[in-house]
Amino acid sequence: MAQRLDGKALAQAVRTDVRQEITAWRDAGHRPPMLKVVLIGDHPASAAYVRGKEKDAAEVGIDTETLRYPESIAEDELLDVVQALNADAAVDGVLVQLPLPDHINEQRVIHAIDPAKDVDGFHPENMGRLLIGDPAFIPATPYGILEMLKRSDIATEGQRAVIVGRSNIVGKPMAALLLQRTANATVTVCHSRTRNLSAHTQAADILVAAVGRAGFITADMVKEGAVVIDVGINRVDDPSRERGYRLVGDVDFEPVAEKAGWITPVPGGVGLMTRAMLLVNTLHAAKQHAG
Ligand code: GUN
């Protein structure tokens, strides 16, 4: 039976560290770090994520303001908002919540964010820096996964890491991080066109599932004793719940937990670490910004 990687406890430990660092930073005479979030439209999941980010930031002493605009905002107007935040010396971090409406080119907006304020780490300059091992803002989900492993004393050195999913937000930066000389894993990235996926996942010492399909990773795909990291957050109908659905990951949890050595639950796993690492990135942005 797998041990749980408890995202709630691990994220709390990260927040405690960040809060202490911010206290020392304030004691040295600096203003609190300032994160500005841009939220377009009223996508319920995005609104919920943003509330979570605001709550976490308040807990550690980061100031936040969320700028809300209607779904109908023009791309040029959104680019102007980003430019104004880039130019504002009182702003350390800028985060544009994704997804954006279809009429807005997401890449154009990400490119417009000042790389020095890009606490999501999605700007090509930060992605490139990550790939070559230069200092960079690291996307919060893969950063959080690495932090979970570190804080749980799970070694990555020489391990076979298999990532299922090749997104710019999770799969690609996760591969780059695990490949760095600080992690030294042997990395395979699988995706929807991978032939004989099970042959890859069955060889994984560390398996990262980031495909966005409920229960996609089944027990037969997992090696005995493997570390299973579930990035998925999927809604499935559940009439027994008042809201009519429940959240599940990409991993078929109970059977896989029987077989794995370690496993992250959903909810209560990677998602909370993602939120915590945004705080780490925002503090780093504030420190760099102050020189
Ligand atoms: N939407 C889902 N995850 C994220 C994230 O990490 N950052 C932003 N900006 N939007 C998201």
Low-confidence segments, given as residue ranges, are: none
Structural class label? alpha/beta
CATH topology assignment of the largest domain: Rossmann fold
**What is the overall number of helices?**
10
Structure, briefly:
This protein is an alpha/beta fold. 41% of the residues lie in helices and 16% in strands. It binds guanine.
Keywords summarizing the entry:
single chain, 291 residues, alpha/beta, Rossmann fold, six-stranded parallel beta sheet, three-stranded parallel beta sheet, 10 helices
Please provide a written account of the structure.
The protein has 291 residues and is of the alpha/beta class. It folds into two domains: 31-114, Rossmann fold, CATH 3.40.50; 140-271, NAD(P)-binding Rossmann-like Domain (Rossmann fold), CATH 3.40.50. Helices cover 41% and strands 16% of the residues. Strands 1-11-8-7-5-6 form a six-stranded parallel β-sheet, with helices on both faces. Strands 3-2-4 form a three-stranded parallel β-sheet, sandwiched between helices. Strand 2, helix 2 (44-60) and strand 3 form a beta-alpha-beta unit. Helix 2 packs across helix 10 and helix 6 (140-151) crosses helix 10. Guanine binds at residues 95-98, 120, 140.
